[in-house]
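worker-3 :: picked Ferredoxin--NADP+ reductase
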Amino acid sequence: MQIYWTKINKIIEETPEVKTYMIDCPEGFTWEEGAHTHLALKGFNAGDKPNRGLVRHMSIMTLPHENLIGITTRIREQCSAYKMILRNLEVGDKVALFKTHSNVPLKREGKNVYLLSSGVGLATFRPLVLDYFGHPENVTKIHSLNIDSSREFLFTDIFETSREKKFTSQFVDNRQDYYEEVKNLASDKGGLFYVVGSDEFLRQNIDVLRDQGIKPEQIMLDKREQQRPTFLSIELPM
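worker-3 :: tokens ->
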């Protein structure tokens, strides 16, 4: 397993509870839109066994051409030991990256794409939207729907409706409005639905989409292929 040690280049305070860590891109480190990586803190591999408490699975919110690896995360006042250490890191401090993979690259099948997210889950979709803006081929349109009860919505400079780009963006601050809109979007029986958020959020969205007749193969999750059946109640091929 390749472990890339690198430095924090910049820290952006998106909101009082959300920070983006821009990390120098080490030589040989590659990724694609929709990728996640493991972000490890100093000391995670100091002992005989890795300290899993110093490692988290994080989405990358940048594209390679931006030349920095962006990690956006929510850090509340009361948080885990990992988040407490992360909150106190400064520009120049080292972190480690490894096991980078994309479960949700942008599918280009000539269909409408719907991005359903909660809070900072929007960070996973930022690179998909940027990739679409740069190369809109074989995507009919994209609609983003994000719920954030804090009302401090993220990346509004990118998630802004544009008729020219065939992109619409919608933010809501309560579940009732959110799930009503999911039902409306699911009237497109041929669309592709990407869902990012907590496991509970995934299951709730899947229930709504399946009730509306959306098939499992139309639902994209930021989960490994072997995890999909757990959420979608489908059987893996023998």
